[in-house]
Amino acid sequence: QSGQLVGEASGAYLTSPESPLLIYGDNPQAKFIILLRNPADRAYSLYKWMRIHGYETAECFRDALLLENSRVCNDTFFHDNPQYFYNYLYFTTGLYINYITNYLRVFGKKQCLFLISEQLFSEPMTVIQIVLRHLEVDPFCDVPFEQVNRSADVFPRLDADLRRQLLDRYDDSIQELSHVLGLDLRRIWI
Fold it and tell me: I want to staple 40 with a disulfide (CB 3.0 to 4.6 A). Which of 3, 15, 117, 166 is the partner?
């Protein structure tokens, strides 16, 4: 219908190097809502998802992180793994600045809305209103919502020391992203 908005959600669009230009070729007016989560927590969450669904063979997150260097350079693994290749790059895909600059270069800041997961968790209605404004929809319309993708509790929490190590490794990327987006992500995440 005329005036109807159509959307799609996929984290893979952010990490796929080809996505911005492919999407632009199909819809140069596309708008994006990019939800950013603490990169260490996101990496561990992705690892848990990959383990639960049988895609990841490393029995602990530290081992999966160690495998990443060999995976990223392995052309056979790139083509023959049973899942989306970038899902195996737990640390690398948390270097958001590398992916966001691709979207900004192709679509510009006006078409991209950047949100922080922690704000969505703590203030869902505020975030929904921000999203509706970005989509040029009445921000005060009634939008029912519920959390439908709760993480399975079959894994222990991310080890605090490993989380700190990851955040130290992410620090430069977080600082650069903070500068590009005009957000103090270090205050939120570190």
Answer: 166
Rounded to an integer, what distance in angstroms lies between the CA atom of residue 183 and that of residue 177? 8
Other CB atoms within 10 Å distance of the CB of residue 40: 23
Question: What does the pLDDT look like over 28-60, one tens digit per residue?
Answer: 999 999 999 999 999 999 999 999 999 999 999
pTM of the model: 0.89
Q: Could you read off the pLDDT of 67-107 as tens digits, one per residue? A: 999 999 999 999 999 999 999 999 999 999 999 999 999 99
Which residues are CB-neighbours of 180 under 8 A, at least 6 positions away? 97, 100, 101, 104
- State which amino acid sits at residue 183: L
Query: What's the token pair of residue 118?
Result: 């922690």
167, 91 contact by CB (below 8 A): no
169, 177, 181: which is closest to 96 by C-alpha? 177
Are the C-beta atoms of 189 and 174 separated by less than 8 Å? yes
Q: Assess contact for 90 and 73: CB atoms under 8 A.
A: no
